[in-house]
């Protein structure tokens, strides 16, 4: 329900549920009762798993992030701090890095081998090429554009210069004496 439609009883029920979750998580661990195998989940971890399976963690995330539910922020903050009670920040940070770090190292090695191979191919291509550059860019026949006579124009420059082609290309402009200039 939206907070506008909630009755006083609903608000008290929500607060009681949050306090119940907080109190369950607040129970201190008892090492004499928990005599499990190494790597076995503790009672606290099993309670957290049960909260996750029931969807309570999603509700807590909603209460923590919803603007209209700010009245429960301190309860949710306390519950979240109790969820991480037995964890050290170093352990939490290392949980996501274990497999990612190994994958990152593998990816780095793979990229390095690809880079070395690419550099070797580049060197091989450079050695196959002659060292002198030929200035000859090729000759092209421009069909549909007539030169002197009935033949097509032969263009001796690179194709990138074709857009700036004119029949006057390379011709010296005729000089007009200064007194005859307009």
Automatic annotation (TrEMBL):
GO terms for biological process: DNA repair; DNA replication checkpoint signaling; replication fork arrest. GO terms for molecular function: DNA binding. The keyword Nucleus applies. InterPro entries: Timeless (IPR044998), Timeless_N (IPR006906). The keyword Cell cycle applies. Pfam families: TIMELESS (PF04821). Keywords: Cell cycle, Nucleus. It is found in: Nucleus. GO terms for cellular component: replication fork protection complex. Residues 2-141 form the Timeless N-terminal domain. It comes from the Eukaryota. This is TIM protein. It comes from Serilophus lunatus.
